[in-house]
Amino acid sequence: MQVHLTLDNYATHKTPDSKQWLLAHPRFRLHFTPTSASWLNLVKRWFAELTRK
After folding, report:
1. Buried (b) or exposed (e) across 2-24, using 16+ Cβ within 10 A?
2. DSSP output for 1-53
3. In angstroms, rounded to a whole number, what is the distance separating the alpha carbons of residues 9 and 6?
4. How far, in Å, are 1, 13, 22, 40, 46 from residue 6 at the CA level?
5. What is Dmax (Cα atoms) for the chain?
6. What is the sign of the dihedral through the CA atoms of 40, 43, 47 and 53?
7. How far apart are the first and last CA of the chain?
8. Which residues pair with 32 in a beta bridge?
9. Can you say whether the dihedral through the CA atoms of 2, 51, 35, 14 is positive or negative?
């Protein structure tokens, strides 16, 4: 079973250590949001509110 993760384009998600780990664990697939996707912050806030309730 594959695990798909959606991440922002922050540099720490793309370090050599991260890339090496991902090669060793191929079931994890990363998908990066566009750099100009500030609207996703509202989605994050919505999920945070759901989590708090």
Report:
1. eeeeeeeeeeeeeeeeeeeebee
2. --EEEEE---GGGGSHHHHHHHHH-TTEEEEEPPTT-TTHHHHHHHHHHHHH-
3. 10
4. 16, 11, 14, 11, 16
5. 38
6. positive
7. 30
8. 7
9. negative
User: How is residue 8 written in tokens?
Assistant: 């922002």
Could you tell me the pTM of the whole model? 0.58
pLDDT tens for 24-53 read: 999 999 998 887 776 677 777 888 889 988
The number of residues making up the chain comes to 53
* 32 Cβ neighbours under 8 A, 6+ residues apart: 6, 7, 8, 9, 13
